[in-house]
Amino acid sequence: MSRSLLLFLCLAGLSLVSAALAVDRFYVNRDYFVYANVPCDTTLYSCFIGDGDSAPEFYMEIQKKAYEIPPCDALRGTCGALECAPGEQDCSVTYCSPDAENGCYGPVTVASSTAI
C-alpha cells in the first residue's frame, strides 16, 4: 500500500469521525448554547433598548442550553419566550448595565448578569 493511499484513508477516516461527533453534539444531544433577546419588564429590570417597528422595544439577553428549550413550531407561533427555570443549570439572564453604549431603560440592577 502506498503512502499517499494510506494518508488518504487516514484523513478520510478522521473526517468521518469528526462529522459523526459533530452530528451527535449538535443534532442528537443539542449540546450548545442559544443566545436570544427576550422581552423585558421595564418596571422591574434595567432593560436594553432596541428599535421596534413603531416604538422602542425593551429586551434582556438570555443564554441557555439548547436541550433545555422545549420543541416548538416557530412558523405557527407556538414558541414561548425563553426563560430560566428556578435552579436550572447553564442558564443566565443579562440585564442592561448603566455603562452600556446604547443606554438602558428602567431601574438599575445591581448585577448585570445573573444565573437563575
Task: Throw out a few tags for this protein.
116 residues, alpha+beta
Question: Can you give a write-up of this model?
Answer:
This protein has 116 residues and is α+β, with helices and mostly antiparallel strands. It folds into two domains: 1-29; 32-115, no CATH class. It is 22% helix and 27% strand. It has one helix and six strands, in the order H-E-E-E-E-E-E. It has one helix at residues 3-28, and strands spanning 33-39, 47-51, 56-65, 91-94, 104-105, 113-115. Strands 1, 2, 3, 4, 5 and 6 form a six-stranded antiparallel sheet that branches. The longest helix is centred in the N-terminal third of the chain and has 26 residues, at 3-28. The radius of gyration is 21 Å and the shape is elongated. The model is unreliable at 109-113 (pLDDT under 50).
Q: Average the pLDDT over all residues and give the rounded result.
A: 84
Total DSSP E strands: 6
Strand/helix succession:
HEEEEEE
Specify the number of helices: 1
Uncertain residue ranges: 109-113
What coarse outline follows from CA principal-axis ratios? elongated
Q: What would you report as the Rg, rounded to the nearest angstrom? A: 21 Å
Instruction: Assign the structural class, choosing from mainly alpha, mainly beta, alpha/beta, alpha+beta, or little secondary structure.
Output: alpha+beta
* Residue share in helix: 10-25%
Sketch the major β-sheet: 6 strands, antiparallel
Distance between the termini: 58 Å
